[in-house]
Amino acid sequence: MHATVVAASGMDLRILLDTLKGTGVSDAWVLGNAAGDRFMFDEPRPDLIICVLDPENIERTDPSPKGFTNLDVMMRAGQSAGRGLPTLIIAPPPLHVASPVAGTVVAHCPLDQREALADHVWAFASTVRATEEPSAPEKVALERRIDPTSFLRRLEGIPRESTGGFYLGVESLVAKLFQEAGAALLKPPPQTDLAFIPSEDSSAVMLIEVKAGKLTEDQLVAAEVRLQGRVDASRAQLGVLIYYDLKGRGFPARYTTGAAVVRLRLEDLIEQLGTRSLPEVIAFAVAQRGSVAS
């Protein structure tokens, strides 16, 4: 794939360009001023556009002959999206793109955090590849389903003798569950159990925290608070707290701890994935979260 990177003046793009090598991008052109505009959409047309904003010059909007301002970059993001080109906008903190350009994807991620940046870029490039492949419609049509009976039996079969071994067994089962449901597992950030993209046509990076054992509501709330912090730190789209209580109890979510975390009982998740796709299950949980919080 060929990429065009449109960046505000003075940005250090070394880590970003190095990250692109592992995403299937064979070459990338970097445009930093208006002189390169005539090459932006030339043949061969780029497969994707990556627009990089400058967090140090949030208020600067004056056009400069020396290089693009953030306003210049956003204008070109709109132009590329208007031409139907997949467009990723990287907005390093403290920048926050509250109203993203229609047809674009926004990643709020520092340029010097290699792993977080790689996750966002890999997810975006994977989505672009999936839409370009001729067999992609067939893959989307064949939604993944799991065998709930088999997974519930495997859950019941995890040895309870060792607390540590039991927890690792539940975490391993959750990872297999998500993989069989069509998710792509990623390298998780520090102190996070799992990270994933829910389907090959999604670019949303989500984090998973697993809690298992004799649980209490206070333990789950504390886990949600920690997970919310990791979501914020890694710029992920959502945190999913999955719990399995040895006494079989359910702990309905109260959702007072954070705007980007959902809570799912493992047994319920397994049952739901027998009849729904993983993106549908997550979307339903997010919708329920909104109705409970309101």
Describe this structure in words.
- The protein has 294 residues and is of the alpha/beta class.
- It folds into 2 domains: 131 residues, Rossmann fold; 146 residues, Trna Endonuclease, Chain: A, domain 1.
- The protein is built from 10 helices and 10 strands.
- The strands form 2 sheets. It has a 5-stranded parallel beta sheet with strand order 2-1-3-4-5, with helices on both faces. A 5-stranded mixed beta sheet has the order 6-7-8-9-10.
- A hairpin with a 7-residue loop joins strand 6 and strand 7.
- The C terminus is likely disordered.
SSE map:
Blueprint: E1 2-7, H1 14-20, E2 27-31, H2 37-40, E3 48-52, H3 70-82, E4 87-90, E5 104-107, H4 114-132, H5 136-141, H6 148-156, H7 163-180, E6 184-186, E7 194-197, E8 206-213, H8 217-234, E9 238-245, E10 261-265, H9 266-273, H10 278-293
Parallel strand pairs: 1-2, 1-3, 3-4, 4-5, 8-9, 9-10
Antiparallel strand pairs: 6-7, 7-8
Q: What is the CATH fold-level name of the largest domain? A: Trna Endonuclease, Chain: A, domain 1
| Largest β-sheet summary | 5 strands, parallel
In DSSP terms (H or I, runs of 4 or more residues), the helix count works out at: 10
Q: Structural class of the helix and strand makeup?
A: alpha/beta
What fraction, in percent, of the residue positions are helical?
A: 40-55%
Rounded to the nearest angstrom, the distance between the terminal CA atoms is 44 Å
Number of strands: 10
SSE succession: EHEHEHEEHHHHEEEHEEHH
Q: Describe the strand arrangement of the main beta sheet, using strand numbers.
A: 2-1-3-4-5
CATH class of the largest domain: Alpha Beta
Shape: elongated
% residues in beta strands: 15-25%
Low-pLDDT residue intervals, each spanning 5 or more residues: 135-141, 290-294
Oligomer: single chain
Number of domains: 2
Mean pLDDT: 82
